[in-house]
Amino acid sequence: xxHFSRTALLAAIATTLPTLAFAHxxxxxxxxxxxxxxxxxxxxxxxxxxxxVGIFAWQLGGRAIWAVPATFVALMAVGGALGVSGVNVPxxxxxxxxxxxxxxxxxxxxxKAPLAVAMALAGFFAIFHGxxxxxxxxxxxxxxxxxxxxxxxxxxxxxAGIGLGMAIGRFGETHGERFVRGAGAAVAVAGLxxxxxxx
Length: 199
Description:
The protein is an all-alpha fold. It has helices at residues 2-21, 30-41, 44-60, 64-85, 92-108, 115-135, 143-169, 173-195. It has one domain (2-195). The longest helix is centred in the last third of the chain and has 27 residues, at 143-169. It is globular, with a radius of gyration of 17 Å. The model is unreliable at 1-28 (pLDDT under 50).
């Protein structure tokens, strides 16, 4: 477990290096990358959903730790391509709000879904998030760089969720799980507030 914690931390640090390399304004595709990277970090709904995907993956354990977040990122890229291409996906904002509610509830109830079901659930909601990212891409941004930016930021949020689950879990099997489930319940309530326009 300690080895995995160090690996996850080093991966998170390493993935921030491209951001530093692209930090110079007005250089080629930088505009697209920076906007793409910032988009998932600029919305509470995106952040809650993506961190919760990481917590959900940690709860499931095993291959789910990488497979569920990887599925989310891959299907989010598909949704982003649809958004950039102008392909309509109905109920995007509702889908994003429901993703926060459902993912929070899944964590709160500690559902041990089969890997394929967990991947399908994450992938389904990822399309809505990706579409929102794609449609809000600045007109003068590079689509590829923008996409790489929001995929990297999403991956970091997933790593943060996995790390958060691991950190909370260190309180012990009984108390740690209770705190994780409480966090999931809080996320679900926040999702309902987002849908209702309260947040």
